[in-house]
Amino acid sequence: MAKAEASVEELVGMIERGELRLPEMQRRYVWRSTRVRDLLDSLYRGYPSGAILLWETDEKVPLQEMAIAQQNNPYQSTRLLLDGQQRLTSLSAVIRGEPVSVRGRKTPIDLLFNLDHPEHLAIVTEVEEEGHDEDDDDDLIEDEADSNEDELQKRFDQMTFVVTTRKLEQLPQWVRVTEVFKTDEDAPFLERAGIEKVSDPRYKKYSQRLARLRGIRKYSYRMDVLERSRSYNEVTEIFVRVNSLGAKLRSSDLALAQITTKWRKSLQVFLEFQKKCAKKGCDLDLGIYLKNLIVFTTGQSRFLTVGGLQVEELKPAWEESCRGMEFALNFLKNNVGIDSPMLLSSPFLLITLGYYGHKRDYALSPQESDQLRYWALVANAKGRYSRGSTETLLDQDLTILKTGGGAQELIDRLRQQVGRLDIAPEELEGRNQRSALFKTMFLAFRATNAKDWRSQVAIALDHSGSQHKLQFHHIFPKAVLKASYTGREADDIANLCFIAGKTNRQISDKAPSQYFAPIIEKSGVEAFDSQCIPTNANLLNVDAYKAFLQRRRELVSKRLNAFLNQSNEIAGQQVSIEMMIADGENDKREFKSTLRWDLKEGVVNKKLEEIILKTVAAFSNSRGGTLLVGVSDDGQVLGLEHDYISLGSVNRDKFELHVRNLLNQQFGTGFITSKVQIIFHRIDEKDVCKIVVLPAREPVIVTLKNKNGQVVEKFYARSGNSSQEIPLSEMSAYMRERFQT
Fold first, then answer.
1. Which member of 21, 87, 379, 667 has the greatest number of CB atoms within 10 A?
2. How many domains in the chain?
């Protein structure tokens, strides 16, 4: 393998001219602007930046387009870039001022350079959080939500390079990096910074810094060049090894390095606790315990703050974080019934549970314990921390607990994220064994004493021996479905169940129409009922596979909802309609005698409908709530008969249609689809309509006509057991607090 050197300027030129190309085996460009910023900062300071691996060949090998524009290669031979794509593409984009193509979008890399940066190095490196990949969409990039503008400005002032912001680019000491590379003239930048004379003490400092920035173009990369004699297959093997042997630096790795530098011999302390938890059946990555430590130290989960923490803060926080984790493990195992990390959709659930116990001094009421159990089960089933920006979602829940909130507020926040908290049959469609719902299926089936079809041993994760070891089984084996369905369709969650290894091997690739009958004859239909598996003969043939899946989804969703104890109430617990009425009105419950019939005047009064709309908006703008129509303020059940008659029909359907039309006209169809549930109850031979309103993610405005017939917009929220209009002077502050993400 030959050795060579080339400057950044030369390499950028090679890319632009098309002399340096990407082989098909390469991954796409994935760097974010913050990574490019850190690369520029390292090169500016003369730090090492690794080597470049090339292969020069005359072979016609499959290529792919680089993320940056290139000309056609003028030479017969091709230099292929095997390692260093992210760095060189980034440098080419910044130096040339060309956008990069990221997932089909042209994106500029705009960086600013601080002419007045401090001489010392500020800690600015940010690495990806666990669970995130650089391939993630941009909407997963989160700012520091807890920082105010002054704090952010102070942080920026300590940095040399930043990703462009409108506010910073207007400041005279910040200059565009690409513009500096495009000219050797200092005058435009110095003039903009307000330097008019050579005698200005900043003149020399700024000029030297501009020259140093341009000097990045002369930075020399070592190049390892593979011989022409190597075949494409061999080069592919080299590429795989080079890219698989190097471990990606994770945020927890960086945090550990920073912590152990300050707190000597702390690694052994962390490992001992990790080992202790593993012995109790909870073997978690060390990074989870470190994130838990940061939560107990700072009240938030990001590792960005580690650099500023002192050992005097870390030691007591570690002790308390261990107590919190022990509470979480015990609660999760013995209260929730989740006895293995394998059944967690995300280990972040443990962090929230532990912090919850800590904020309550580990003393919970029975009702609070039940609510927390319910939250944990539904959050796990819905994948609360396994979708979207997980650290942001975790910090939202931590903020609730920091500010005195409890399990009910956690439930409300979860509902804001996922909408309905019950499991609909269609929610199972297209899911496979990696889904959070698959783990909840196991929990639900285990709770109803599902057993292996052959041995009658209850399903469990910790069975010993290959014949009893739990496996998931394709009810319609893949071999049976292969001719008519894709592998993805065969892996549908509704085609999976839990049996022992030996039973699975004995069934092998038999169709359910073959192997169901002997099992039913020996063990009864209960063997299948316990796992919600239809046994109708007309559903067991391959041509009925789609119908089988649909029927099983219906059965599984019903079982899951029973397991989760879900009743579609805002409180997230089973509360009878009679109990709700007996409890009376509160900040999340209101009674209305009628929808539109004025009981005093004996006529239709549409102003009453406006009151209903105000109440729905107020619940939505607050923490959600339940409106009972047909119940007086003092809890007397009046029924809906007068409203029915006023609508020309004595039935629920027309009443519900009228309610939906009112809400659709006022708030839009999307609102009623995602934020409102309408349910009827029969009490003492009278109908009561229950309207369950979920918290909105954005402000809900009511549009009404005033006494003069003018259209006005009003904003309502709950205050105690009533809906109050928020004055204009207070609206902005309320919205910032209520709808912050």
1. 379
2. 4
187 and 336 part of one domain: no
Give tens-digit pLDDT for 401-428.
Answer: 999 999 989 998 998 888 888 888 999 9
Q: Count CB-CB contacts under 10 A for residue 202.
A: 15
Cβ pair 677, 568 in contact under 8 A: yes
| Dihedral, 13, 16, 17, 21 alpha carbons, nearest 10 | 100
Instruction: Examine the domain organization and report whether 81 and 210 are in the same domain.
Output: yes
User: Does residue 130 sit within a domain?
Assistant: no
Residue 81 · residue 24 · CB < 8 Å = no
Residue 640: pLDDT band by 50, 70, 90 thresholds? very high
Scored b (16 or more CB within 10 A) or e, 660-673 reads eebbeebbeeebbe
Residue 4: which residues within 8 A CB-CB, separation 6 or more?
A: 222, 223, 225
pLDDT tens digits, 339-376: 888 899 999 999 999 999 999 999 998 888 888 999 99
Q: Are residues 598 and 696 in the same domain?
A: yes
- Whether the CB-CB separation of 284 and 348 falls below 8 Å is answered with no
Choose the weakest-confidence range: 127-131, 305-309, 427-431: 127-131
CATH number of domain containing 714: 3.30.950.30
